[in-house]
């Protein structure tokens, strides 16, 4: 029986993770959320966790009253989040928290020798070498939940050695604005950007998909997860979101992972690995699609990809700065403070403003994140 701690259980990945748990009767020991008390109460009553955390203190107090009849401990804030990430009764931590707030609980879960099912991009984008080194030191597996990284992970099963791999191909849906010019994106509204053609996701990641910052962040993640040089990672736009990513081997064989665009497939594989189990997801019918299409990304229009490529090429704290800047830029856009096209500009300027350190600590990462956020807030007007 797998015992799980699910961080970010009321979000898109979290709720789909619970769909998988429901089918396989996994034991859910801990749940965490930001402030959605109503949904958390429903989850508690169904899955009977022993410990829950609400990041918002008022939400935690409200939840305590709502579930006073149940034997569940309710905590709040970062301390509570870390308590759930390190809970002795859980062997696997699924981290689907959105944003930099997910970095510290991942690090603490690794120190507690938990298996990590990772959906939080910021852990590897900002933490990178620190996180990978810590995982190796503690003998901890980091299993990817992102559909693209899960696809690569699956395509690598049976690979004799890393030397056999020529390159990674990361596929991208292209988002809602595929084919648009830069001038056409000037007047894009948040409502326009939140209409993703293929995936049902939270607001922040949907905007990241629209700017293609999401793919840039995944580029950085792929480098750390699979220990690949930057020039061995390629991005291809694939509108149908059926081929989730691929590996090109030295003999030029290409092995790809295909499936309907449903996050429950990679979520389940991270939880059942190395086994394969029955899934709540429908089978892919290639005949129904008829054809699959692939395109080069438009780097001139979707500049966020290059922001991330530059960040990882510069190394050090630049990826953390790019990520922190993006979180603030997306908030500003969603609140109507900046244009859609301002996101890439602010992200790049803040990234280039990052402290120049190659040998850095967790404190340095958090400081670079803070500096980047302040840069965006002070320079967006």
From TrEMBL:
Residues 258-374 form the DXP reductoisomerase C-terminal domain. The lineage of its organism: Bacteria, Bacillati, Bacillota, Clostridia, Eubacteriales. GO terms for molecular function: 1-deoxy-D-xylulose-5-phosphate reductoisomerase activity; manganese ion binding; NADPH binding. NADPH binds at residues 10-13, 35, 120, 122, 202. InterPro entries: DXP_reductoisomerase (IPR003821), DXP_reductoisomerase_C (IPR013644), DXP_reductoisomerase_N (IPR013512), DXPR_C (IPR026877), DXPR_C_sf (IPR036169), NAD(P)-bd_dom_sf (IPR036291). Catalyzes the NADPH-dependent rearrangement and reduction of 1-deoxy-D-xylulose-5-phosphate (DXP) to 2-C-methyl-D-erythritol 4-phosphate (MEP). The gene is dxr. Gene3D superfamilies: 1.10.1740.10, NAD(P)-binding Rossmann-like Domain. This is 1-deoxy-D-xylulose 5-phosphate reductoisomerase. It comes from Candidatus Eubacterium faecale.
């Amino acid at each position: 029986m797998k015992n799980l701690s699910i961080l970010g259980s009321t979000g898109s990945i979290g709720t789909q993770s619970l769909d998988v748990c429901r089918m396989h009767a996994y034991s859910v020991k801990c749940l965490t959320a930001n402030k959605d008390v109503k949904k958390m109460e429903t989850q508690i009553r169904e899955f009977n966790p022993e410990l829950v955390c609400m990041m918002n203190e008022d939400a935690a107090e409200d939840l305590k009253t709502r579930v006073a009849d149940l034997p569940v401990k309710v905590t709040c804030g970062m301390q509570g989040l870390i308590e759930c990430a390190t809970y002795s009764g859980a062997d696997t931590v699924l981290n689907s928290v959105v944003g930099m707030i997910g970095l510290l609980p991942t690090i603490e879960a690794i120190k507690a020798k938990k298996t990590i099912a990772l959906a939080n991009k910021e852990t590897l984008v900002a933490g990178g070498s620190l996180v990978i080194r810590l995982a190796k030191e503690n003998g901890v597996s980091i299993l990817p939940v992102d559909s693209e990284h899960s696809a690569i992970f699956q395509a690598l099963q049976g690979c004799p050695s890393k030397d056999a791999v020529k390159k990674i191909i990361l596929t991208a849906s292209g988002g809602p604005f595929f084919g648009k010019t830069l001038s056409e994106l000037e007047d894009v509204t948040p409502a326009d950007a939140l209409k993703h053609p293929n995936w049902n996701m939270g607001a922040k990641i949907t905007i990241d998909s629209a700017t293609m910052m999401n793919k840039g962040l995944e580029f950085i993640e792929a480098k750390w997860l699979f220990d690949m040089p930057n020039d061995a990672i390629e991005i291809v736009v694939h509108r149908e979101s059926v081929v989730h990513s691929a590996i090109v081997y030295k003999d030029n064989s290409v092995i790809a992972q295909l499936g309907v665009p449903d996050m429950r497939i990679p979520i389940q594989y991270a939880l059942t690995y190395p086994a394969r189990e029955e899934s709540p997801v429908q089978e892919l019918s290639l005949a129904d699609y008829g054809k699959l299409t692939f395109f080069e990304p438009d780097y001139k229009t979707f500049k966020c990809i290059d922001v991330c490529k530059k960040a990882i090429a510069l190394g050090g704290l630049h990826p953390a700065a790019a990520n922190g800047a993006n979180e603030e830029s997306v908030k500003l856009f969603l609140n109507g403070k900046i244009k859609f096209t301002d996101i890439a500009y602010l992200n790049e300027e803040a990234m280039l403003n990052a402290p120049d350190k190659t040998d850095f600590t967790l404190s340095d990462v958090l400081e670079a994140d803070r500096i980047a956020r302040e840069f965006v807030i002070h320079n967006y007007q």
